[in-house]
Each structure stands twice: as structure tokens, then as C-alpha cells.
Design goal:
This protein is α+β, with helices and mostly antiparallel strands and 171 residues long. It is built from 4 helices and 8 strands. Helix content is 25%, strand content 32%. The protein has an 8-stranded mixed beta sheet, with helices on both faces. The radius of gyration is 15 Å and the shape is globular. The two termini are 18 Å apart.
Length: 171
């Protein structure tokens, strides 16, 4: 598989900006609310830990058949960062992307995650990704609504207590 790299993705209100280590300076505040970790586990990171995580993400996986694409969600009107979206893309019988999103508490309820997820999926489709998967906690209704709005549907499969949602795209 030729490497797929994150590229800027504009939407009507947002810019999905490829992740840089320097984004940790602002993102540590975006990710500071402990309530964000209710369903995904963990706790708010320190600036240093977040920067180290971002540096590992940017370096990419050791497996050449996997690509990590990560973006920060930037609000076009203010230039502020509001969250992240990511895709782990792998090949096998088909090219599959597992996606995830996080929007900081102050920006939730504004359709930002939905707009970002839809833009990410459209971008993936232009890169020959045919299956998109998201893992969502069964009680995380807001994330389930984002997945549904982005075209994913829940399956009977689960992983680590989360429901696997799937979208099969046609070429």
C-alpha cells in the first residue's frame, strides 16, 4: 500500500489540519475536561504527555501496511482548535479505516463532530477506502448520533465493550 498522509480538509465551518506536535499547546486545554474520558477511559493529559503522544502519532506505526492520519479540528471563524479526528488505515482484502473523533466540551452540541466526521469519510472515499469502522460505547449517545449522521450503522460485533459501527462505500 502506498502511504496515505493527512492533508488539509476544509468544510463549511471547519478546517481539519494535519496534526503537529505544537498543537499540544492548545489541545491540552481542549482535552482538559475529565468528562471527555467517561466513555473512552483515561484522564486529561499534561502538555508534555500530549506532545509526546502527538510525536509518536506523527512518526507513524512500524507496520508499513498501516497509516495513521490525524487532524486537529480548527474553527474557521475564530481559528481556535476544538477537537481531533483520526483514521487508522490498513489493507488486507480491502482498504479499511477505523476512525474516531473527540470534540472539547465547550464546542459540543454544535454539529462540529458530525461535520468533521462526514468530511473525513468523504476524504477517505477519495483515497479508495471502502470500509469505515468506528467503535462506540453503547451509552455514548452523542457519538452514536455522529456515526449515524456520517452514514455508519451499528453491527452485532463488539470490541472491548464498544459496538462496532460500519460503513461500506461504493467505488
Amino acid at each position: 500500500m502506498s502511504a496515505i498522509a493527512a492533508e488539509p480538509i476544509p468544510t463549511s465551518r471547519l478546517d481539519l489540519v494535519p496534526l503537529r506536535a505544537g498543537h499540544a499547546d492548545e489541545m491540552v486545554t481542549v482535552l482538559a475536561d475529565a468528562d471527555l474520558y467517561t466513555f473512552i477511559g483515561g484522564s486529561p493529559p499534561t502538555r508534555e504527555a500530549l506532545r509526546a503522544t502527538y510525536e509518536r502519532m506523527i512518526a507513524g506505526p512500524a507496520d508499513p501496511d498501516i497509516c495513521w492520519c490525524n487532524w486537529v479540528i480548527q474553527l474557521r471563524e475564530s481559528g481556535r482548535l476544538a477537537g481531533t479526528v483520526q483514521a487508522t488505515i490498513s489493507t488486507g482484502d480491502e482498504t479499511v479505516a477505523e476512525i474516531a473523533w473527540v470534540v472539547g466540551t465547550p464546542w459540543q452540541g454544535r454539529g462540529i463532530a458530525k461535520e468533521a466526521a462526514q468530511a473525513l469519510i468523504a476524504w477517505l472515499g477519495r483515497r479508495s477506502v471502502r470500509t469505515v469502522i468506528a467503535h462506540i460505547h453503547p451509552y455514548h449517545h452523542a457519538s452514536a448520533a455522529v456515526a449515524a449522521a456520517a452514514g455508519l450503522t451499528p453491527t452485532d460485533e463488539s470490541q472491548d465493550g464498544e459496538i462496532r459501527w460500519r460503513l461500506t462505500m461504493t467505488p
